[in-house]
Write a structure and sequence with these properties.
Layout (H helix, E strand, L loop, with lengths): L12 H7 L6 H11 L4 E3 L1 H12 L5 H15 L20 E3 L5 H9 L10 H16 L11 H8 L17 H4 L4 E4 L3 H21 L6 H4 L2 H14 L2 H15 L3 H16 L8 H18 L3 E4 L2 E2 H15 L4 H13 L17 E5 L11 H13 L5 E6 L5 H12 L6 E4 H9 L10 H5 L2 E3 L3 E3 L8 E6 L1 H7 L25 H33 L4 H4 L4 H4 L15 E5 L1 H17 L5 H9 L6 H9 L8 H19 L10 E4 L5 H6 L29 H8 L10 E2 L2 E4 L9 H14 L4 E5 L3 H9 L8 E3 L4 E3 L5 H8 L3 E2 L2
Parallel strand pairs: 1-2, 3-4, 5-6, 6-7, 7-8, 11-12, 12-13, 13-14, 15-16, 15-19
Antiparallel strand pairs: 8-16, 9-10, 17-18
Helix pairs in contact: 3-4, 3-6, 4-11, 9-11, 9-14, 12-13, 14-15, 14-16, 15-17, 16-17, 17-18, 18-31, 21-22, 22-28, 25-28, 32-33
Amino acid sequence: MAQVLDKTNFKKPAIFKRAITIEPTSRFEKFREKCMGAELVVKVDHARIYTRVMKETDGEPMVIRRAKAFYAVVREMPIDIDPDDLFVGYIDGIWAGKQVSEGKGELIEKALSGNGTRAFSMSEEDERELREEIIPYWKGPRGDWSRTRSSRNYELIDEGRYEIYPPFIPRRSVLETAGGTVLHGHECLDLEKVVKRGILGIKADAEDRLVRLDYADPDEVKRVPFLKGVIMAMEAAAVIGERFAARARELADKTEDDTERTTLLRIAKACDRVPANPARSFYEALQSFWFAYLLVHWENMETAAQALGRIDQYLYPYYKQDIREGTITQEEAQELLDFWLMKFQSVRKYGGFGGDKGAHVSVGGYKADGTDATNELTFMFIEAIMHLRMPQPFFSVQVHSRMRDDFLLKACQLASLGLGQPQFENADVIVPGLIARETGGPPITMEDARGFTSIGCQEPMIVGKDGLKQAGIMSVASALEFALNNGFSRQSNEKSGLETGNPRQFKSFEEVMEAYEKQLAWQIKKFTLMNNMDEINLAETRPTVFRSALIDDCIEKGMSREEGGARYNAGPGLIAAGLPDVADSLAAIKKLVFEDGTITMTELCDALDHNFEGYEHIRRMCLETPKFGNDDDYVDGLMAWAAHGWAAECRKQRNTRGGHGVPGIQAYAFYPRYGKELGALPSGRLAGEPISDGVSPCLGKDINGPTAVLKSVSKHNSFEQNMCDILNMSLDPEMFEDEDGFDRLASFIRTMVDQKIQHVAFNVVSANTLRAAQKEPDKYRNLVVRLAGSSAFFVDLTEGLQNGIIARTEHGI
């Protein structure tokens, strides 16, 4: 059984008491403990229903087939209610479940064959059905999961025009959201629309658009299948409340516990109303919002990084009304928020079947008119994350120059608890960056930009209007390696890049930079081709109807999000990992070879070829050159050059819907993996060591204090990294032993805002604690840490990720 997190695992009780305003209720703590001890189970209900309908509808338009499959899933998925929970519905049917999806077919097959990680339980009947009926169908006649891929893509591949995976990164290193042809998500739908207007209101919009079609226009006629699919999906979605209401009353009739009966009847009353109709109370709004989120995943179980948006803004009118009318107290509302947020932790990482959904909640920020958006719920959501003490949902606070001091202090108190939460996101940088995106259509308005939310790790998007698709994360440090080895990988000795000349013959630093730029441009182009293949695939094989109906303009255009129905269609989203490694390495080459003349290019390349073995004197010199993160203009200027070059090249790219590339800098959890595939670098980094996790300095290289880190990061243009620009730092937990620790961190965040830095997040767990957790993981089962753009249980991470976190410089403020 999982160990329940004690409030003193990270800090002394006094610090926790200073941070908490409302104590979590005993009912919530009991439910949390129960959930954390649940056994994980793999189920095939969703795959069974989906497969059956797809077989039955063979030959019909794909959007209709998908709509019919969703219709059947909503009406047939097994449901049940935990009377200890205040809200109903689990994405996977049960708390610790994992529904199989055809999108994970290859991983499923591998796990069942015994060649993969099988960290799950499954009934014999489900496994038989999976092997004999579900997998054979989705694997298709080609024997390679062709039913999940576009035939047009295969034509392009067969003609030799595209490659499935770019050769510059081994297949295993391509982020799933980049190369996986079944990705859905990484967006923020207008879930508030379900709460405010109800499912039936959205259905009426599609019916009205269908009536207004000009059937004499062939282009208008093409819209019919999508609109009929939306109507069908909304008809199904409207009955989910009825199903749970009936089940709640059935259980209420059987129980002899008065408290349990009261809870069940309250659930039934709410589900009679939502999500079919507009919510009337705070409780109904929360349940309706959760239903909408659940239904998005039931449409496609491979949905990931589905954000919730500015939830303190959406729910505030309902909270304010109930408080004014005296139908709820603040303490009762806080308990509801605690239970509600717990729902987003219900899917845990599950061996070869994938894992966490990556829900992201944002609070704070600006209103549409540019005034501060903080309200009472903003503080209560921060409080709920303190009570929750979980990796999910991802949680960000939007900070800016006009934010309230008490809001910032409350966010810093949360940061002190060592949960890797919250992320501090600078709206003063993000809003202008969003407006600068080239969407291939209407420009992003100031009002929409101010209402942004973050998705996935930190990527800002426009709520309910955005069709941006993330292409994935690319190791740009490999571009420098290829430039310094004429297109070859030092680890594999395979040709993985362009031939840009023998680096031993480079006569100037400008030649090094030019070779790097050529390699980088080639990599970005390949990444874009891969993204565009995925976009073609999704439009042809995975059009959505329910989720597309929650994106502005899809109903009016009569086309899915995947086909370009969203109002804004910038993209692809291209993310760089390893830019600080590039800057540190360029600084070493410039100084040692072309300025001081201490070593030659031949000597440097020989040292890199041998991973500095026998060349230890050269490595010492490399390590002593300026390093990014120490407020040194020599190397910080090279980081600014590299970041600008990355952004400029990304913006040249186009997606299949007319948008231009959107650049960003981060590494998610892939910086150790990318490091393993990379040889030695001129920075002095050895082969196989992790690369940087974003705009964070390379591990352990920031030695001049936290303010120097901010100064270094501020020198590159964060505005143009308008996909993300992630900075992670480690803080000494002891700084919060003093009464003014929260205030010092708040001042640091104010400086971050003033320096126009886009993002910062913190680990506030000592390296000694992390090392102890490596040795005795069972004692630290619930230790939460910050990765690059997300939080996770430390003991669930690979050794490489654990060591990377431990190696970060531990700062005091």
